[in-house]
Amino acid sequence: ERKQLHRLRREPSRTLDGVDIRLWANAESREDVTGAHALGAAGVGLYRTEFLFLQRSELPDEEEQFRAYRDVVLGMTGRAVTIRTMDIGADKADRTGLALTNEPNPALGLRGVRLSLARIDVFRTQLRAMLRASGYGPLRVLVPMVSGREEVLAVAALLRDVARELRSEGHEIAEHVPLGAMIEVPAAAIALPTFIGSVDFISVGTNDLTQYLLAADRGNDALGELYSPLHPAMLLLLRNVIRTARARGKPVAVCGEMAGDAALTPLLLALGLEEFSLHPATLLEVRRAIRAQRLDALRAAAPALLRCRDRDAIDRWLRARAAPA
Ligand code: PEP
Ligand code: MG
């Protein structure tokens, strides 16, 4: 079976009725990038940069960050690389003194873009490093924990300013660096029409979106089944987000864990998703799941999926469409 999966390395991620689905890779290490490239990922859909900031006492300087981002861009040889700005907060073991300590509710605190905008000096350094790396191949900037329009506009203005600065210093950077927002705060998902016009793409962080939508800590095992994206509210929200983005012609991906769960592939396809970003280890299984489905049939079954009233009903919908492994 492993061998059969291995054979899909060079096959397209295409449904039985001929629709190509984009599979991006979530990558954090050199091995992930190599793996993503070898498996035919469309590019890197999520490059988490936290590792550069954690487990050390000094902040990484522009040069160190630039080299890290440039290496990913070069490793993907012309396929797009999506680099996420730092998603640091009191929920991570930060020793640089960047995040606040002792926040009563770290998940609801100064994390992600909120911290970036509170520490413009540190943020500018990161954006400079990213834009410099854009001179080496297609690069997109993705912003975590966006809750609304103001944050998107603030980052866009900063990005323009940093680009102007770099050009005046003689750096060769890309003409256009697409800016994207992570959709992982329910307010951003619901109010997406208010800022979709100000971003080039979106990526849905279903790990955090599930946590915040259901008020269920993603790391708390005591909550058991409660922390799960298979909730009618989550499906409705996902359907609306995908619809809003597609209606405006903006690419939309899901980059949370559910994108890498082949058992959920039919569900995401039914909701209209055509871009997945997942860990390379799960890419071939999801590709196989895509190749076993007809998109027209799944789309026709979307209303039934959205009528499901509970987890059991969603599970039944999924079982009825599971392809034999
Ligand atoms: C998410 O929240 O779904 C996500 C992809 O980001 P992270 O897991 O890094 O919070
Ligand atoms: Mg997240």
TrEMBL record:
Molecular function in Gene Ontology: phosphoenolpyruvate-protein phosphotransferase activity
Cellular location(s): Cytoplasm
Cofactor: Mg(2+)
UniProt entry tagged with the keyword Zinc: no
Name of the top EC class for this enzyme: transferase
Ranges for domain PEP-utilising enzyme C-terminal: 3-292
EC number: 2.7.3.9
Keywords in alphabetical order: Cytoplasm, Kinase, Magnesium, Metal-binding, Phosphotransferase system, Sugar transport, Transferase, Transport
Keyword Mitochondrion: no
Catalysed reaction equations from the record: L-histidyl-[protein] + phosphoenolpyruvate = N(pros)-phospho-L-histidyl-[protein] + pyruvate
Function: General (non sugar-specific) component of the phosphoenolpyruvate-dependent sugar phosphotransferase system (sugar PTS). This major carbohydrate active-transport system catalyzes the phosphorylation of incoming sugar substrates concomitantly with their translocation across the cell membrane. Enzyme I transfers the phosphoryl group from phosphoenolpyruvate (PEP) to the phosphoryl carrier protein (HPr).
Family: Belongs to the PEP-utilizing enzyme family.
Name the UniProt record assigns to this protein: Phosphoenolpyruvate-protein phosphotransferase
Organism: Luteimonas kalidii
Region of the whole protein represented: 250 to 574 of 574
